[in-house]
Amino acid sequence: MTAALGAYDILGCITRRLPARLLRRDEVRKNRVHTRFIEAHLAELAAPPSAETLQAAAALGAFAASRDAEPLSAARPTTARGIVDTIGPVVW
């Protein structure tokens, strides 16, 4: 799970970043946690994404905005499950 979460940056609210950051912690991997562990380390765990990650997100957003897109509607259901399914692969 750590490898899968570490293979890409998770953007969005803290609840999407928190699992990856938790699994990188030595205390979690060695099961040396307590019931208030997240609260005690929340400042580190909830830190904003790196500048590089934010730059990549902005580039991806600009790329997505530059494409001709049709709004999704109930008449045209989608099977897209994420941003890559929606806009296609992005080569950096």
Which secondary structure elements does this structure contain, and how are they paired or packed?
Elements: H1 2-6, H2 14-24, H3 26-29, H4 37-40, H5 42-45, H6 51-66, H7 83-87
Structural write-up:
- The chain has seven helices and no strands.
- It has two domains: 1-47, no CATH class; 50-66 and 81-92, no CATH class.
- The mean pLDDT is 75.
- The protein is elongated and about 50 Å long.
- The protein has 92 residues and is mainly alpha-helical.
- 1% of the residues are buried.
- Please tally the helical runs, counting DSSP H or I stretches of 4 or more residues: 7
Chain-averaged pLDDT:
75
Overall morphology: elongated
Q: Please outline the major beta sheet.
A: none
Helix content: 40-55%
Name the descriptors.
7 helices; 92 residues; 2 domains; mainly alpha; elongated
In short:
This protein has helices at residues 2-6, 14-24, 26-29, 37-40, 42-45, 51-66, 83-87. With 92 residues, the chain is an all-alpha fold. It is elongated.
